Amino acid sequence: MIHDLSKIPSLANQFLLELRDKEIQQDRLRFRTNLNRLGKIAAYEISKVLKYNEVDVQTPLGTANIQVSNDSIVLCSILRAGLPLHFGLLEFFDHSENGFVSAYRKHHKDGTFDISLGYSTCPNLTDTTLIICDPMLATGASIDKTINALIDYGTPEKIHVVTVVSSKLGLDYINRLHPNVDIWTFGIDEELTAKSFIVPGMGDAGDLAFGLKEQD
Asked: Per the confidence metrics, is the pTM higher than 0.85?
């Protein structure tokens, strides 16, 4: 299922505007902060579909009954761009366990690329709710490889993917390969360039958050 969080106007749109704006996004601290903010908003939205049970809590004047989630949450960030988004989610899912995957495009001289997974670490995922975060979902290849790699750590009860900007092509790709995965996104763009960059997109989220990397 695809959850397009831009369909209902909210404060998230202001943060997305600033992330896309080519002038504002040059402020790396602000860029990271806005990714962090959207991570918190995504966490709140996902919290609405978790499982809940009732617990009693003793107050100074009596007993209150409150519904709290009993889902076992694991947050997994795709390095390096996913880190600010990850920490936004972590501020709301503060009792979650955490995993990390290094996935990147390995470019070839003919203009094509493969997705390489260089590193992964994760707790046992059996019967958990797994939330994967990556700011950009372009072709969907990174998310697909990440999901397949993480299954080696156990079978989650439910998988969610949080992204800031997605391409329609990438969403369709993941929805076709992983129909039971819920995707939460703040913007959907129709176009990919010949090199598979999202248009209008927002640029390279990793570079904008942490600085330029050396090119192959």
From this structure: yes
